[in-house]
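Milestone 3.1: sequence recovery, worked example.
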């Protein structure tokens, strides 16, 4: 029964790390990434649809993203959705696609983005600690119900802490890597 608690704790903490890496992908580094517009959705026949489902997205250079919809009647909708999403650029429509021309990042923007990455990592650490708290509560309940001994409970708490420490180390490594790519000119 303790093994199932450990397995569940590891799985939930892994999801914390995966969510963080997904969030990090939306942050801009030196080169723009199509992931910046992953969360932008347009109204397509009454359904909120991601831009990747209505056209092709290309990055011809380090500062430009081009969205070419398969249905040209969506150009205005795409422009509107990007303006609403407030991703830091005004879209321009050339009749065939929507062009997002990002200015090169200034040092100040890089520092601000790095600060935002730290806040994201801190949220992930808090989520991991909450998972540890849930595991500890389950272990305490098992001890209270006399399903495990006090010594087993102590070892289980230590194991939950070890899993948490590994997860937080992983989060810190992801943060260090992301900060390095953000601050690299």
């Amino acid at each position: 029964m303790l093994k199932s608690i450990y397995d569940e704790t590891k799985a939930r903490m892994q999801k914390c790390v995966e969510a963080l890496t997904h969030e990090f992908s939306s942050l801009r580094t030196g080169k723009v990434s199509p992931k910046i517009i992953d969360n932008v959705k347009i109204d397509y026949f009454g359904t909120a649809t991601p831009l990747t489902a209505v056209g092709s997205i290309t990055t011809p250079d380090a500062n430009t993203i081009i969205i070419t919809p398969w249905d040209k009647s969506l150009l205005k909708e795409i422009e509107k959705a990007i303006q609403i999403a407030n991703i830091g650029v005004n879209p321009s429509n050339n009749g065939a696609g929507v062009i997002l021309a990002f200015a090169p990042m200034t040092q100040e923007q890089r520092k601000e983005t790095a600060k935002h990455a730290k806040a994201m990592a801190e949220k992930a650490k808090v989520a991991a600690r909450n998972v540890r708290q849930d595991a500890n509560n389950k272990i305490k309940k098992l001890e209270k119900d006399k399903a495990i001994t006090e010594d087993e409970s102590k070892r289980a708490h230590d194991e939950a802490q070890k899993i948490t420490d590994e997860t937080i180390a992983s989060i810190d490594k992801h943060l260090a890597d992301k900060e390095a790519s953000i601050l690299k000119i």
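The first helix runs from residue 2 to 25. The chain has two domains: 2-26+106-183, 34-101.
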